[in-house]
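Exam review. A common question shows you a sequence with its structure tokens and asks you to describe the fold in words. Practice with the pair below. Do the first one on your own.
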Amino acid sequence: MGEVELDDSKGILKVHAEIIFYGNAANEILSNQIANDIESQWNEPSASVSIHNKWYKVQFKVAGYHATGLQPINVYENVDPRKNYFRIEEFASGNISFVDGINSNTGYFKLDNLLNNSTTAAHEFGHTIGLEHPTIMDIRGVGVPGIMYPRGTIVDPPYQYDPSARPLAPGGTMNPFTRKVLIGDIDDLKLHRLSYNNGLAILGDFTSVWHEAHQP
């Protein structure tokens, strides 16, 4: 979830989001790293959008914070559309990270999904601002997979876990480290269709779910 701001003087559309992390595996360094990963990956396309016949350069402004004293009521009662809450733990049921639905401001991250310049956080952030998985899961011939393609997608060999593997054989599906935010992903946000009030609009919605740590 985030808040969109139109800066008419500079011709910039800013997508503001704050991601507040809690849980046993969360810390300040990791919180900053995840926010930086999301911001840099979503800004990589250098996209622009036309709103009311004026072009704006799209810029994502993402900040990450470690909240050591966060309480469930802080999540339940939050009314700031910029704030998102994610628990980080070494263990996650189902062995995956997830958000609480398309257009959401809460979720749960598995620690090892976030390390080594992973695209998991940027993918899940895409869900929080309204994007779903594409319906076509065989994109051979397309090239670089967009950020919203899930694990298991059939891709060209350079984007597989094992470039020499046959499609769907072990190693023969998309390595999520190879996906990128593309211009098409920015287009799919439909930023020009948002309802702007005094230059501000909300992207996503409140789910406000507090997560307890999953147990093995």
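Now try the second one, then compare your answer with the model answer below.
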Amino acid sequence: MLEQDIREYAPILTHKNYNAPSVFTPESLIREARRQKQVLVGKVPSICILDPDGDLVDYLRKTGQARQHPCWACYHSNMDIFDYEGVEYGIIGRAVGAPFAVLVAEELFATGCELLISISSAGQIRSLGTPPYVVLVEKALRDEGTSYHYLPPTKYSTLHPTLQEMLYTSWNHGNIPLYSGKTWTTDAPFRETEAMIAACEENDILAVEMEIAALYALATAKSYNIVCFAYVTNQMGRIEGDFEKGDEMGSHAALRLVDQTAQSWHTR
């Protein structure tokens, strides 16, 4: 099929002017949410976290460390704030999937976020050991839809080299071991076929998740600082006893991960 024919049957690739501003903006959405919900004007913490599984949010609430942000005006999510090792963070749980993650990320950067850390639960493709373990995602295969609204078609979305170097040069592996590599971002978790998994293995892709390609596309398109980690917790349900995340559903590891990233950011 010729490229022209492909575009005719793939509307996601047509009528994209990547330099044109959007008519609908996150600022407009926030303005109306504030008005309708009677939320005060205010900024979010400079470092925010996306927690798609919601386990870290649940842990922080259970242990009394989280409090609701009074100025977060999103229609679709709630923000908690907490302090850890002297740094205040904003955190949003259960923003699952590329469209939702990017919608929330746009609103975060529109209200004062300077660095966004995403920790996506991921399924193991190429083994680096027994899960759970953490991968700093350098590239994410764009097998979702959201990224194509921000950047022209390419195979991967990528972590900004400056952020990558920042983390490589300062990471304390004694605190939390860190791998790095590529993931596959999909919109359809129940279409993870043997053929696609094999193709990913051939391309040295380590894990599959649902948000990162879109978040990195947003970061590139708008010059936002976004760092994504894949928390490899499972083998896609192919064994019994899968989806174990460790102590407190991985919350202690996630806090160490966030702390390390924040330290690197503040000392850059």
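Model answer, second protein: The chain is about 30% helix and 25% strand. The chain has a mean pLDDT of 94. Full marks require stating both points clearly.
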